[in-house]
């Protein structure tokens, strides 16, 4: 197990290193270089040369890369062109917000989707299965903005139970202290994920229920409920672990619609606004963070696999 | 009736799927006294497994008992509620299933799985259950049971897993053990060990047993009485000795006659049962076996024979019941009566060597990928220095247990894998040195026939397209010529020409194997490598395929490299035999010499281990113990020495060179070959 972990973490570090190279190359592929991007199309060659010298862009690429890597390691992602703020502090402000939102959405989705999937599998072909399957497809097919609008209309405008605006605090503690305001954005985000997860869970449980080890458990005299809890659940969670890992990066980068709908300035809005304003250091900073999240996501998946499945532990 | 442990009366089971309802069991009557062992035999789909499963109420989805009773210890399990059934399962009735890998939970430790029934049924604490589980594992012969308790199923070998499954079934000391094909997924030597273990445990614990199997060899010496099932009914029921000595039902007779072990000699074709068992969707009228029976009359087709009670005239006068209007006369030889006559023309064998292997080796690196270590790193030695010669027109049989490298060898001969050492010469040409184009031409001459023809055919291709493909790839003939060739092939393997428009899934297992043979023959090859071509088939169908392979060999002068784990089949079909163990060819020679006077202790052990379908056969020699070591770390010197009863120090240090101590052509690689000292002395 320890060897497995060391191996996987080592691989993750190598991938992160490659990510940093790609982001660095992207930085230098900007049309006309970063100077043109910042100073605008009317900049004189002199001012560009001055800017490049000032920023160190006139040195050789390897030297620049080493400097870039050095800055990365000290947490310096450069300065935003537009917001007059360091990229690190910008991401530092926005990331916790997104993490709270997506984290809660994923946790909620997992908590609901696992039992829902089990119910569908156990009641396969019966009314409960059809109703839940229909609901899952409906939730999956509804665009997030439309779902959000309906939720706002019903729960905020009509029933006035939850506010239509997400918490505006800047710290995690502050955001969490306004729980009612989190309900609508989290639910909006979670519904689609619940739909997807529960479908996966349903088919994983069905697959496992037809396995012969379940028949063996029945032949031991075990009850159906305990067969599910003791035998099937763990085996059925293995495919779900992959799905969770895959969701992590998408949720860090892709909460744009929910964020803008509930006025919740997280990573999605930051990325969107920077793209609109050609704020390249911020864009690349966000790209790097999402890259890191992807790598960490797959690392978590691998570890979850190893915890759930003893066969993987001993192979590696 | 009260002295019976289990009584099954007029049991009816239906299995409903979306499209149809199958009457899987249609009035089954069986009984079992405490401590007695009953064998249920029959071919696939006859209802033997359904009978076993319905005792515990474990029928598959859509299955239910529609009539009859299953009395166990005074309780009717067929009508019992779930809690009553759960109390019996794993407690007073234990069950062992066929595949020990899939029937264990992959993510639970062995200990937890073995202890589970105890916690459920005896109210033992976790610690007590754990202790008892360890004790039971020791009882089933698990080495270091304490360590193994913490292992997961994938860390054990197949034989050890089946021991775990048996421990699970026995941990509550049941009165009845139901074993459903418990050894079918295992190697010959492991099979023997497991059967011995079950025997011994039955003696010690005094439990009754139902042993369900398709293999007549398995039940011959393990049970007291046998029920032969056909199409959801019991066809014949008798003590094991009377049944094997004088089967009365025509189906039982045909089953025995189809066994390659019972063939008088190799030139004689095997008896086959034409056609297929009925589908059981519609209840057949008349005797269910009548459409396939050579002795059927109008009476058989009109009325269904009842299971008649007749006392056995032989030993003890036990019950011998059979459902047949025209039973076998107990005075005649049941096999000779139905075996077809031998063809006049003997097969043509030549002395011209077609295929020569010299020191062929294949190693698979253990670590792959960009960071794998270089040469000299850990590797699995699948085939290690095999040399042999196959003559044109003969059948060369390769036998060995799983993992001995026999399939890898076959794949190298066909050119699907490149050897890592040695050379393979086909018609004098070294095929390892062939370029792409030459290799394509070579493939015309050497074709492969697979064990699982269904898995090896594109399920979305029609048969016509499957048979045409090799012709198209090799650019043979125009469309019309190809059509003619396909029709000819179907004729040759005995399939209707209309088959071209059908898909593989529409055929039965035996028909698919015919298709596999037709595809292999499409290019008129000189050599067909047949890798376990009959191991997935029932005995009667196996006989059909073996006969067909022989007929085609005689007509076309084909050469076969016949790979199998089944000694009886190889003995029947092969002219020359090679015995493989852990990547090495340990013995090779004419079939009658190798099987008659084996020189290598492994061959001797294999032959002693085989379950003869004869309850009166005396146990010979010493069956093989232990397990095959890993091919990733084969033993030094002679690879067999770790299991060899006569191994000496030299065996660990020096690899035995091949020698021919008795007759030319009968080669053995052993320091101490079992050269017979006098007539008949062969044991060690």
From TrEMBL, chain A:
Gene3D superfamilies xrefs: MetI-like
TM annotation in the entry: 12-30, 99-118, 130-155, 175-197, 236-262, 282-308
Record-linked Pfam families: BPD_transp_1, BPD_transp_1_N
InterPro entries: BPD_transp_1_N, MetI-like, MetI-like_sf
SUPFAM superfamilies: MetI-like
Alphabetical list of PANTHER family matching this protein: DIPEPTIDE TRANSPORT SYSTEM PERMEASE PROTEIN DPPB-RELATED (PTHR43163)
Annotated membrane topology: Multi-pass membrane protein
Keywords recorded for this protein, A-Z: Cell membrane, Membrane, Transmembrane, Transmembrane helix, Transport
Chief location: membrane
Transport among keywords: yes
Name of the protein described by the UniProt record: Diguanylate cyclase
PROSITE patterns: ABC_TM1
Record family assignment: Belongs to the binding-protein-dependent transport system permease family.
Residues covered by the ABC transmembrane type-1 domain: 95-301
Location(s), subcellular: Cell membrane
């Amino acid at each position: 197990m320890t060897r497995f972990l060391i191996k996987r973490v080592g691989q993750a570090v190598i991938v992160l290193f490659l990510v940093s190279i790609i982001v660095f190359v992207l930085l230098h592929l900007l049309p006309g270089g970063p100077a043109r991007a910042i100073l605008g199309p009317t900049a004189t060659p002199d001012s560009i040369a001055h800017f490049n010298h000032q920023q160190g862009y006139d040195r050789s690429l390897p030297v620049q890369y080493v400097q870039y890597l050095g800055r990365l390691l000290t947490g310096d992602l450069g300065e935003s062109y537009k917001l007059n703020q360091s990229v690190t502090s910008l991401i530092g402000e926005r990331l916790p917000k997104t993490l709270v939102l997506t984290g809660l959405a994923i946790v909620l989705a997992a908590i609901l989707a696992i039992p829902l999937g089990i119910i569908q599998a156990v009641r396969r072909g019966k009314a409960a299965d059809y109703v839940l399957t229909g609901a899952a497809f409906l939730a999956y097919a509804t665009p997030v903005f439309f779902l959000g609008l309906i939720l706002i209309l019903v729960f905020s405008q009509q029933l006035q139970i939850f506010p239509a605006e997400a918490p505006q605090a800047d710290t995690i503690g502050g955001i969490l202290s306004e729980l009612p305001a989190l309900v609508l954005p989290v639910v909006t985000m979670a519904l689609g994920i619940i739909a997807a997860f529960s479908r996966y869970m349903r088919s994983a449980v069905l697959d496992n229920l037809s396995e012969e080890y379940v028949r063996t458990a029945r032949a031991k005299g075990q009850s159906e409920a305990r067969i599910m809890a003791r035998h099937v659940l763990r085996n059925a969670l293995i495919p779900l672990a992959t799905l969770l890992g895959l969701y992590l990066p998408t949720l860090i980068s892709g909460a744009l619609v929910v964020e803008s709908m509930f006025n919740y300035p997280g990573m999605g809005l930051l990325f969107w606004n920077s793209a609109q304003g050609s704020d390249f250091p911020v864009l690349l900073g966000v790209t790097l963070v999402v890259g890191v999240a992807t790598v960490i996501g797959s690392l978590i998946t691998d570890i979850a696999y190893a915890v759930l499945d003893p066969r993987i532990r001993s192979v590696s | 009736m009260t002295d019976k442990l289990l009584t099954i009366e007029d049991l009816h089971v239906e299995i409903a799927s979306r499209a149809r309802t199958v009457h899987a069991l249609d009035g089954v009557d069986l009984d079992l006294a405490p401590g007695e062992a009953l064998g249920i035999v029959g071919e696939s789909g006859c209802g033997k497994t359904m009978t076993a499963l319905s005792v515990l109420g474990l029928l598959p989805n859509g299955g239910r008992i529609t009539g009859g009773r299953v009395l166990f210890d005074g309780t009717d399990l067929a009508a019992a509620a779930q809690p009553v059934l759960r109390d019996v399962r794993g407690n007073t009735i234990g069950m062992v299933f066929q595949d020990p890998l899939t029937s264990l939970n992959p993510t639970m430790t062995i200990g937890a799985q073995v202890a589970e029934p105890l916690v459920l049924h005896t109210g033992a604490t976790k610690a007590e259950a754990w202790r008892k589980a360890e004790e039971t594992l020791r009882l089933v012969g698990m080495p270091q049971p304490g360590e193994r308790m913490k292992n997961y199923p994938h860390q054990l070998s197949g034989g050890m897993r089946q021991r775990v499954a048996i421990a699970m079934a026995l941990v509550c000391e049941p009165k009845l053990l139901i074993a459903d094909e418990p050894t079918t997924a295992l190697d010959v030597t492991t099979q023997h060990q497991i059967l011995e273990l079950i025997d011994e445990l039955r003696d010690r614990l005094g439990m009754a047993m139902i042993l369900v199997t398709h293999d007549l060899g398995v039940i011959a010496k393990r049970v007291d009485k046998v029920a032969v099932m056909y199409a959801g009914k019991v066809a014949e029921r008798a003590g094991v000795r009377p049944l094997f000595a004088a089967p009365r039902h025509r189906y039982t007779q045909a089953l025995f006659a189809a066994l390659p072990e019972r063939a008088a000699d190799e030139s004689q074709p095997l008896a086959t049962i034409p056609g297929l068992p009925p589908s059981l969707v519609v209840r057949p009228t008349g005797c269910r076996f009548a459409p396939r029976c050579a002795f059927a009359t109008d009476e058989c087709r009109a009325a269904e024979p009842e299971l008649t009670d007749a006392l056995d005239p032989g030993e003890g006068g036990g019950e011998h019941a059979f459902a047949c209007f025209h039973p076998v006369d107990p005075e005649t030889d049941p096999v000779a009566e139905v075996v077809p006559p031998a063809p006049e023309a003997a097969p043509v064998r030549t002395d011209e060597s077609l295929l020569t292997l010299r020191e062929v080796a294949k190693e698979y690196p253990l670590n792959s990928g960009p960071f794998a270590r270089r040469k000299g790193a850990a590797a699995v030695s699948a085939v290690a220095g095999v040399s042999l010669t196959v003559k044109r027109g003969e059948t060369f049989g390769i036998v060995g247990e799983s993992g001995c490298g026999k399939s890898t060898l076959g794949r190298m001969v066909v050119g699907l894998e490149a050897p890592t050492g040695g050379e393979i010469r086909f018609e004098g040409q070294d095929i390892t040195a062939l370029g792409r184009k030459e290799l394509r031409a070579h493939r015309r001459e050497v074709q492969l026939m697979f064990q699982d023809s269904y898995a090896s055919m594109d399920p979305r291709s029609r048969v016509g397209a499957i048979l045409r493909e090799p012709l198209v790839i090799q650019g043979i003939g125009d469309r019309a010529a190809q059509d003619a060739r396909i029709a000819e092939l179907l004729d040759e393997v005995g399939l209707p020409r209309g088959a071209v428009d059908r898909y593989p899934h529409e055929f039965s297992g035996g028909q698919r194997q015919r298709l596999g043979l037709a595809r292999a023959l499409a290019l008129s090859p000189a050599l067909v490598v047949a890798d376990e071509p009959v191991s997935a088939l029932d005995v009667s169908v196996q006989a059909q395929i073996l006969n067909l392979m022989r007929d085609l060999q005689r007509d076309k002068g084909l050469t076969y490299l016949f790979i199998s784990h089944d000694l009886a089949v190889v003995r029947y079909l092969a002219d020359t035999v090679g015995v493989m163990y852990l990547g090495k060819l340990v013995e090779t020679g004419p079939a009658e010499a190798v099987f008659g006077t084996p020189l290598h202790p492994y061959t001797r052990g294999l032959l002693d281990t085989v379950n003869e379908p004869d309850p009166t056969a005396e146990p010979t020699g010493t069956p093989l113990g232990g397990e095959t070591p890993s091919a990733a770390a084969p033993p030094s010197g002679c690879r067999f020495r770790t299991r060899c009863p006569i191994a000496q120090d030299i065996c660990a240090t020096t690899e035995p060179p091949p020698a021919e101590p008795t007759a030319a052509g009968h080669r053995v690689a052993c320091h101490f070959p079992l050269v017979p000292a006098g007539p008949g002395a062969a044991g060690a």
